[in-house]
What does this fold into?
Amino acid sequence: MNAVITGSGWVTPLTMGYVRNNNRFEMGAGKLPEITRKDVFEEPRPHFGRLDRYSRLGVSAIAFALKDAQLHRWTRKRPIGIIASTVHGCLETDIEYFNATMTDGGRLASPNLFAYTLPNSFLGEAAIFFGLTGTSFVINEPSPSGIWCLRMALIGIANGQFEKLVCGMCDLGRLPFSCESEETPGGALFFVIEKTPTRQHLVYGDLYLDNNGILRFDDDEIKSLPILAEKCLKAFSKRG
Amino acid sequence: MRDVWIADAVAITPFGESRRQLWQALLAGKSAIKPVWRFPVKNYHAGIASCIEDLASSGDRSMGHVLLQRLLQQLDPVSQDALLITATTKSGIDNLEKVCRGYPANIQDIMLSAIYEELHNDLNLKQHGINISASCASSTIAIAQGAAMIASSWTDAVLVCCMDLVTEFVFSGFSALQALSATPCRPFDRDRSGLSMGEGAAAVLLMSKERAKQEARPHLATILGWGAANDAGHITAPDKDGSGLQQAIIQAMAAAKCNAFDIAAISAHGTGTLYNDQMELKVFNHIFADHPLPIYSIKGAIGHTLGAAGGIETVVGIQTLLEKTAPPTIGFSNPEKGAEGRVLSEPVDISGNCLLATNSGFGGINAAIILGEGSVS
It folds into this structure.
């Protein structure tokens, strides 16, 4: 099972941007930036400011990845899918929603906030922003490596579910209560993956999944999404 | 591509803990939608839901933990090399309610991966898998992804388990959206006024035909095709033209290599909300314009079980094909335009070997699977 990578974008505590913009990539610990519409979109997007923090993070990284793959402009909806891996999902929004709901015995439940208490709501927002009509879902995997979303992407491509998709990870990081032995890093990192390299000049490299579940990018084994982002940056800088 | 069989299928619903109990209750026209006692409802637009009567949290654990233990008891033994895919929208969100209220609660149960981790450990599985969350299409997409893994020879056996609960968290949200019906929901009825919430769990064991034969497993059904698409239109409302659902069905039919006349019946999402039911009827009447096949929804009987809906409806779909009978749509009596002669309040005989099952959800997602009849008596 194989495909090519044509784009990658991210928002982390330390950096935001995409490969072709020569932005630095580093996951790192710390507080995530307050993302504004102007950081991500050139044109007005009034709805962007109303998104919860988790959705804004995910939509922004998807926007950067699509920009990197030159797929951010559209006039007709396109069958591009989205798979996102997350550990905590929208838990921060859940807490905000339920604390507000409890205040007055449920009378103050916010329908707008409730709409973002699903971990896949931001995929719907990204689909609306960019006209993406492919399959979209969120996965939670045992470790926060994001590797499973790449596996699902390649299996989906092999089955004809996808020709193109955006695939990556999104998490806000630290929880308001502790329940993990290992802290999940905050940030969002997405890739554009395509079945056939019709746009050869945009290809960073080949992604391959073997029957043992091992993922390779141009023959190097990939064990996490941040490593894959670094490989894409290296491939771009080599090409000059 | 390899054939994908369903080799085991169980569901825990308010009607009981077996497929047979659920099926008999549906045929008898029963509804489990009753007044909610689990949390105060006086400030909400409705006071009813379909709850499992004796389901309660155990110590600091979520009710979901108890529900999953019951699900495990119903499952035939699962090979340790099976890959597990779980599906849920809100996992053990009842424990988040406890945390917010300052009560003791196992925080791990709140996490989306909680049901995956619990089942993976209890079943002592060797392979790692995932949890899938795609709002009310979660388990339909989980089954589709599991089938894709087997069809493409990536693995031989996938266990799909799904679960969601009636909690104040979700109930308050649907109430705030004014989506709850004050009376038991009436899918596809002209007088419908919203949905009724429900809870339950299901497990579906998928296997390659070869592996199922090797393990002498029953052939309950075949997953013939699947598809999914996003409306890319609105975050909580379906596309009025049903473009995403239509696309999902077309993909599923193409994968199954079947045409409209091969489909014997449709297990619809049928929530009882104005927009969902209208959208579904529009799509079904377009694709099956010349084919007067029965359409049913089980949500008038067990409510909307959110991420578990597709799994439970698959279990019912298996029985529909095995018994050659489409169950009635409970609560339906006065047909909405487009439902006349297609949606029925009584069980009806079906002819044909394929069933289309669909679900749609927040975030604009739509999913469809096509089941083929099994070969067990």
Summary: Chain B has a mean pLDDT of 96. Chain B touches chain A through 67 residues (CB under 8 Å).
